[in-house]
């Protein structure tokens, strides 16, 4: 085995040069990490398996590739001295002739005097280099060799000053070369494979069969997997030259569940049985001595609070990874994760750890580069870290049993720092809800929900708009040209600034923004074992298993299950005495549409696109077709409901005011309305939020200040109601309806007041009484405005800690438009453009706008459209359509006054395709000019058919009334209709110009010769003339 040891001189000197460069650079910058050391002495003693990868041994592995026990390394600024046994010194002979001198001092183990002489010589070298000597003071070494050096060094310590150089060695070894990164990446891929492809299946089988298996037994099974060569060979996730002989455990594996969790890497699996609830599994591999780690949390039949807390943890985990860039400090990564927790649910801060990982490499955890709130050391390209975010000691509000009451959540990944976005080596073991969430209570899962969502419930988020004060609304005509020139100059500056910001924001070719969320081939599992198949499959019939969401077809004498999500549709047809039932399946490359298209995972795979079943039992196949259609609808509805509720976050608890009566606003209604009879309630201001109390219902509506994005007060001037509107950062549930906007309002019309008790009405009639009523209404409206405004200001004062201020829409700057289906008044406010009177509401933050585009700006059209593109390119642009053209200058002035860059064009653009192009490669998009293409006259003003397809049809009020009387539906105008309009216009123009009598006589004669149809046409023309 000794003959197999070979030191690589090239690698040794490259890494030694890195160490010397870091040491010298630290001396020049102020001796922060090496403590001003003039020399370095690294001692290793007797080999101990439990301390194989501490700092001193790690330096041996880094430089030499092996651990050399009972060895002393002494570094001066010019030379390296190695004191070791003669046997080990033989392997170091090829290091003598290098760039940096290496002097080897062999000692004879049988002659202790040789060791003493070597130590004395080293001591003289250390003293000659300077007073300060760098050591690893916190590393314990044992054995005769180490004990004698400590004795010799201790006697000379009067003349020397010992400084700790552990931070300097950490900095030297932190940035890894390609070989080191490859080792870390390979180990991480292997860990991900064991977690995703073995552990998840093993866990599912135990839970599904309801076996009683201990955590220790499951950990032992994972432990045995490291020697399974077949498992690693068949995995494409590992590299082609992977050799599991170089694979070893760094820690674990550990399996924990049932309310007792230890979130440290040193945790051990206990002898308790696996509990279906919250399960944490973790492990760490070493590949060629370099460590990589992974841990995942799996939720079995979770409650809503568990799901919500897990989403928050994922958000914090992603925020930490996003913050890992070259130049960032370690504390920035921690603060990014903690900030995500505070933004979503501040109450969870006390459950968040004090550090979220550390540098990883040869050492499993380098504490000098820990991700803690006080560590200011910078991150550099090539560093690798273990990111470990967790929420400990949480309480489940709806536990399945006693063991499920307490739970913890943890995620751990191995990540590489780059100049751009960090690379997650363990991303193959996914952390999304679909991958870690399991439901074994099938009856509850399949049971369809009785509640039907109202069509307008989800529309609140889908459309938003914006506005602000104009600067020149009342300027005279003499200043219009000057104002237009100023506006154009300002817009040019904004466009250039926007272009520059885009290039800085996407400084490198980052590819698709949603690369992590790219479409993947979906896999569905109906049954894990043959025993789960229904009993009726023995009859070889088509069977619909509602619980498993599966259709079982008899093929070649065998029951073959197809998950309902793989079936596109079914069609039934009758031919003679047989009935045919055709199954159409979803498969890649169909080209049917964007929604149906599936990406290829394996180019060599084969797919069934259709399959037909024939039977004489017509009623039976008709029943099967009906069951499949209903099952498909149920599965689609469940998927939509799950997707719709993904962004709903459970708020922190409202802290009620106990010692005094809270500030109240009575007799107000809530929108969106709660179920049941419409009755007024009251709003209360508490310590950290608002509470709406309805007298007819027990469940209150709570809004915490940390979730409030905007607070608006809209007076009843020109409106039928006075209101306070709260726009939220994250949607909440009001009843069973998801909403991002909550509104408290009161009617301001005469119907809301009872005047039957007014005696003066008996004696006063006519204009005097009417005048008095108008005065009374104005007084009431002013009183309502005062009352609501005062309450809104009190809410703002209570939420001052969360930067909540009252915003009032500017009615004088408003313009009408259609953000949804109806024409409403869009009102600019200080920070947003809003429409708060008619649901669905519109609230758009001005800071979120990237650019605005005015469409259909051409002579002759009465209306134009306004499109807002968001800085988050994944959000679809929103449209405010049918804005009167006489309000164009007002809209332009407002956009310019709030520093929103805008462009204009004559046609409606296909924004879905434009945004796909932007998202695909934003760097290239801005490199090619960004949004400047919107300003160019890209469309000719020729009257060809293509431009006519894009243009909008304009009709007069009379024509519109006629068309509405003819048809209730909106009409679409195709090319032929447009062409006929053009022909009619041309013909009327000719008629107005007039023709001479000779030409008309010739036309009439020609019409007479052309037959009955032409005769009718000619007659029509004569009558028209």
Task: Record the SSE blueprint.
Elements: H1 9-29, E1 39-44, H2 55-64, E2 71-75, E3 80-85, H3 86-89, E4 102-107, H4 112-129, E5 132-135, H5 144-155, E6 161-164, H6 166-174, H7 178-209, H8 215-224, H9 229-233, E7 247-256, E8 278-287, E9 290-300, H10 304-323, H11 330-344, E10 357-359, E11 366-370, E12 384-395, E13 406-416, E14 423-424, H12 433-436, E15 437-438, H13 442-446, H14 480-505, E16 543-545, E17 550-555, E18 558-563, E19 567-575, E20 578-585, E21 610-615, H15 618-644, E22 663-671, E23 681-685, E24 689-693, E25 701-704, E26 708-714, E27 721-734, E28 737-747, H16 767-798, E29 806-807, E30 815-817, E31 824-828, E32 832-835, E33 842-845, E34 849-855, E35 863-870, E36 878-884, H17 888-897, E37 902-904, H18 911-920, H19 922-927, H20 945-950, H21 957-966, H22 975-993, H23 997-1009, H24 1012-1024
Parallel strand pairs: 1-5, 3-4, 5-6, 9-15, 26-29, 34-37
Antiparallel strand pairs: 1-2, 2-3, 7-8, 8-9, 10-11, 10-12, 12-13, 13-14, 16-17, 17-18, 19-20, 20-21, 22-23, 22-28, 23-24, 24-25, 26-27, 27-28, 30-31, 31-32, 32-33, 34-35, 35-36
Helix pairs in contact: 1-6, 4-5, 10-11, 23-24
Intertermini distance: 112 Å
Number of helices: 24
Percentage of residues assigned to helices: 25-40%
Shape designation: globular
Describe this structure as you would to a colleague.
With 1025 residues, the chain is an alpha+beta fold. It contains 24 helices and 37 strands. The protein has an eight-stranded mixed β-sheet, covered by helices on one side. Strands 4-3-2-1-5-6 form a six-stranded mixed β-sheet. The chain has a five-stranded antiparallel β-sheet with strand order 11-10-12-13-14. Helix 1 (9-29) packs across helix 6 (166-174), helix 4 (112-129) crosses helix 5 and helix 23 (997-1009) packs antiparallel against helix 24 (1012-1024). The longest helix is centred in the N-terminal third of the chain and has 32 residues, at 178-209. The chain is globular, with a radius of gyration of 38 Å. Mean pLDDT is 82; it is low at 442-476, 514-518, 751-755, 757-764, 937-993 and 1011-1025. One of its GO terms (molecular function) is nucleosome binding. One of its GO terms (cellular component) is FACT complex. Its main location: nucleus. Component of the FACT complex. Forms a stable heterodimer with POB3. The SPT16-POB3 dimer weakly associates with multiple molecules of NHP6 to form the FACT complex. It holds the Pfam family PH_SPT16.
